[in-house]
Amino acid sequence: METNDKTYDFILVGGGIYSCCMYYYLKKHNPEIKILIIEKGNKLGGCIQTETHNNNVIYELGANVFKLCNNSYKLIKDLNLCDQIAIINKGLVRYISYENKLYPLYLSFLGYIYFPLISFTNKIKLIYKILFKKYKHVNSYHYDISIKNYMKENFDSQHYQYLLLPLIYGSSGGHGDISALSFLSRNLKLVHNNKNSLRIWNEKIKTIDNDIISKSSLTNFNNNNSMNVKKCSQSSCASTEYDDNVTVLNHADTNHNEHGHNRKNTYTTENSDINTNANTIASVPILKPVSITTPAHKQTPYKRLNKNVDERNKQPFFENGKPNQYKQNFVLSIIGYSLKIIRNVFFSINYTIYKYFPMLYSNIGNKFLQRIEEEEKKKYIGKTVSLNYGLYEFIRHLKKHIHENDISANTELNYIEKNMKNNIWTCNINKNNTKTNIYSKNIILTVNSKMCANILRKILPTQIKNNLEQFSYSSLMTANIYFNKEDITIPKNLFGLLSAEQNAHILGCFYANNMFTNRCENNKILLTLYIRDTNIPSDNNDEQLKKTILNNLKSILPINNDAKPTILNVTKWKDILPAYSENYENKLKEFLNELENPQYQNLFVDAGWITGTSISDRISSAMELSDYIIKKKY
């Protein structure tokens, strides 16, 4: 076995978009760090793969679209890809396929009300239960209930079969036994997951920030304490009488120093949470001032006069203060709202002129530019998008920032071990049938749980390793095919369809060149089909495969004159999507808790089965982990 004595700062295992983003973010912070990406395949990209046919057909082998969020938009902007964003036409409609018919599902309240597969009575019941919270929240279960049983117990089976089952097919390729908590929080993002957050690195960043604030508060508290004690020692406060359990941190105002001997100030303590304004932390008592009134016969005439003036000044406040304050607040709110409207109108006029006549704006202020950027961002955030020439443009532009020598393709990681003396990870890899040891200070695993269990088999407890191996996944096939327009009958407003059949072969499809007009010639209909892999024998040849796909497709879309499609590509994706089996969240929590132990220091595990499978999830989590590493180490 060969040995490579070079020690990397980071080894990223898996060459998908996550690792490409991690490389980009880490190098952006520190170009000098040494990073190696290990990829089992022959190129980067993972499930993002775009192909072309005859230079006029663009199709995706894996992911087709994603919903843009702030972090994914920021990456697109950094990579200068904003002009390539392709937004799906709002007029396109999702369809549900059931018993050889297509039912439109409009994404609106009225669209839901008119959706024919669910009875009106069940719709009213669901709306009532949600509005008045007449259902059991998924987080309140002490056991991991399946989404099928959860819907039957709290709502009805129609909503499960005709709405949720198609979404399960579309997002994970799974079945009704999928965990309700996992599906609703991870795939649909409708509820907060109380067991495992998808934003695990953000929570760790908050912990670091809180520690910094606490240390800063403690330092400021000690500094103020020492300064105030020093001041007190130089004044008459040093001779004032105090209780044994009381501390003095300040003294009389300088304006009243000449009367300090007529006044006593003491302090009692009370516990509180962090108070950054007072520069204190929870573990340090907060000092509460208690005034001891000086008897009237001991007050000087000057003091009594000022006291009477103060009382006269306070009286109108208590009598008329609240009404006056309400009036003042109301007037100020009206003025503020009016000014906001005026500013928005003024900006809209300026923005419109700037769009069409930018040459008129030679000197633009930063605030105006920031506002323009916010307005531009609003066009995209939350929209379902792709890129004009396919999603692989992400990888192409990220690869421009990745040095060729920092990629080890056709390489498999066998296992990792840690040298506790020097805190360095040993990685045993297999490349070109040769096993080699390489070394790194940090390891980031982005592979699925089964691969993760195998790589960590020498260091993980047996039970946790077994749990990772038992997590279930869906294997899918994608088939890209096209027909001549006259050969198939298809709704003109079709975005895509999902099946509501219990044992569907074709789980769903996208009408690709209806979503993005540049993907294919106008006289063609380009479809991307998603097929459950177990339904097609692995030993099928091309003709058998074509026949099987065509027979399944006929039950969904009418094909005219027995026309046969042109099959561009069929890709098998093994264990591509987590199916979130029973007790998934608890077992995942055990694994994540195990990684908190000292022996796993500088080992990071982040993949779709932990922090979300969508492209925006992967980009966001990579950005957050890089921020966490930078905060922690630098």
UniProtKB/TrEMBL annotation:
Cross-referenced PROSITE patterns: PROKAR_LIPOPROTEIN (PS51257)
Pfam families: Amino_oxidase (PF01593), NAD_binding_8 (PF13450)
TM segment ranges: 6-26, 102-120
Keywords of the record: Membrane, Oxidoreductase, Transmembrane, Transmembrane helix
EC numbers: 1.3.3.4
Annotated stretches, region: Disordered: 253-273
GO molecular function, one term: oxygen-dependent protoporphyrinogen oxidase activity
Residues covered by the Amine oxidase domain: 349-605
Enzyme class: oxidoreductase
Keyword Nucleotide-binding appears in the UniProt entry: no
PANTHER family in the record: PROTOPORPHYRINOGEN OXIDASE (PTHR42923:SF3)
Name the UniProt record assigns to this protein: Protoporphyrinogen oxidase, putative
Organism: Plasmodium chabaudi adami
